[in-house]
Structure formats: structure tokens, C-alpha cells
Amino acid sequence: MQFGLSQEQEMIVSTVRSFVENEIYPHETAVERSGQVPPEFGEAIKAKTLELGFYACNFPEEVGGAGLSHMDFCLVERELGRGSMALTHFFGRPQNILMACEGAQRERYLLPAVRGEKMDALAMTEPDAGSDVRGMKCTAVCDGGDWVISGSKHFISGAEHADFFIVFVATGVDETPKGPKKRITCFLVDRGTPGFEVRDGYRSVSHRGYKNYVLDFDQCRLPDAQVLGEVDGGFAVMNEWLYATRLTVAAMAVGRARRCFDFALNYAAERKQFGQAIGKFQGIGFQIADMVTEIDAADWLTLAGAWRLDQGLPANREIASAKLFATEMLARVTDTTLQIFGGMGLMDDFPIERFWRDARVERIWDGTSEIQRHIISRDLLRPLGA
Predict the structure, then answer these.
(1) 233 FRET partner, CA 20 to 30 A, in 183, 262, 317, 345?
(2) pLDDT category of residue 241 using cuts at 50, 70 and 90
(3) Are 157 and 95 in contact (CB under 8 A)?
């Protein structure tokens, strides 16, 4: 692994950071206070991203993407992490799972998503099936060559802008020595399909403007052509294309932590109590030292996971470690920054209280901290027969 970025990578970082500072930061307060992203904001961000050539930069060149490596893409996500997720959503990173599209699916879903003509949303979580994916109750039954889906999904991000949805549902049950085991299939579902409704979800304190929705399926009929991958092969598709999304969460957590840290550092240098800058007091100075050390550690842990993916090396444990450490680090950094700001940290004159609220969800979505610990320990213990 090379320590240090190439000239091209430095340009990626500089370009995306400048974009976030100039195109995202100015709109954050309005979105935060209204809880809405005006359509013109989103369209302008998307248009400028397309102009820069960064839209769908996580896709290979042969389908129209920028063909960035995992390392390069982590650098992009790290810089986007500095900005409001409700706004950076329009920077456009379609789900990599669309690379599983075949035949007519490529022209109908994959290529329009890469070109920014259509937007997608991923639907997996249910009220009784969060970490336990196989516990999902949303089912699809084969009927005369079609599939009939019934059930619900919730916590679906980006659904209000999605033209189609990548939905995982149960399509059967296998009896195993450990009990029933559901088979999972992935479907592509267009907005407006009869029997399919998208409705408002819950009001979240994290990432205002980046809303979650509920998807309801009531005898929703889909042709077999809407299956993404193989029937009952949902886990194979998921494991090939989705597990690395934890790395992007880690990268975004690092970017957000660095932005928050900059506020803490400057405030500690400027704020005076008892005749001197508060950063000179050991209680504050040591907190500053601890924060930057943890941020650097999370950064390298994340980039190391991306490097392993680029080398074709096993990276499941390393990615889980990065997601676990980076998101928990973000919680500590935002909380410490708020403490350094004191009462002003809770006022919306500064974005500190937003960073603090937004940080909480990172330890939950894309695999809770507990799930990451399970992945890490299982990876270490299985070779020993435990």
C-alpha cells in the first residue's frame, strides 16, 4: 500500500472538496431548517456533477462511468461526507448492484442510471427484518410466469426521487438443520407499477431533508424479466455488489469528522476563558489530540480496506472494522466538539448540533456496530473451528 496520494488522486480530492464547499455548503442551512430539498437545488447539483464528469463515478468506463478504483471512490465519498447528505445525494452514485443487469435490463435501468436519466433506490429493510435480512416477510410468489409481491419495506432512502427500486424479497423457504432458511430474490420495480405504493416514512432527527419512505406491495405483479440476477440468488447478488457499501459509510464518516474537527480546532484557538485560548488548557488540548489521532486512524483503516479490494484481496473483515471504527469515531468527535463549544454547540447558529445528530444513524444503517463486530469475530474464529 502506498502512503500518500497520486497527483490524479489529489486532483479528485481537490475537485470534489471545492464542489462541496461551493455547491453544497451554501444550501445546507435552508435544507436543515425546512427539511426539504427544493427541486431546483437537486437538479442544479446533478447538472454540475454531470458536467464535471463525476456522475456515477463508481461505475466502470465501459458503461459510461468514470471507472474509479475503490480507493479513488473512497476519496470521493470522504469529501462528500463533509456536506449535507440530502444535497450530496444528487452528486449521483447509483447502486453498483445494477452491474448485475443483463440483456434489456441494461438499456432500461443500468445505462439510464449511469447517465443520470433515472435514479434508483435500494429496498431491503422491513419492520421485522433489519439486521436479520432472512427474516423478511415481504414475499413474491410465482404465478403463471409472473411474480406477485406482497408486503412492505421501510427506511427506504432516496425513494422520493427514485424512478425505480431495487427490492429484495423472500421467494421460498428451505428446511435446514438449523431451521427454516428463506430464499431471497432481487427485483427491479418501476415507480407507478400497479399494486406498488411509495408513501411517507418517519421523521428522523438525522440528515434532515434526506428522507426515508415506506414501500407497500399489494399483489404487485412483475414479469420474470424484472428479476435482477438469478431467482433465489439475492444473497449472491448482494454479497458481490453491496458489501463494499460499508466502506463508503466509513469514508463519509471520516470526511464529516474532519469538517467537525476543523470547527473544534479553530474554536479552541479563538475562544478565550481565564485570559487565554481554551485550547491551551490541558483538558481541551488533549481532546484535540485524541480527536485527530482517531480521525487519522479511521482514515487509514478505510483506505486500507479500499486498497485490499483494488488488489483483489479478501476484505470483509477489514471493511467491517473500518465501518465500525469510523462511525463510532464520528460519534465521539461530534460529541467532543459539542462539549468544546459548550452551550453554543447546541444552537443552530453553528452546524455542530447537526453533525452530532447526523452522526447517530451511521452506527445503525448499512449494518449496525453489533453486526460489524459479529462479522469481525466470525472471520477470526472460523479458521480456528470456533
Answers:
(1) 317
(2) confident
(3) no
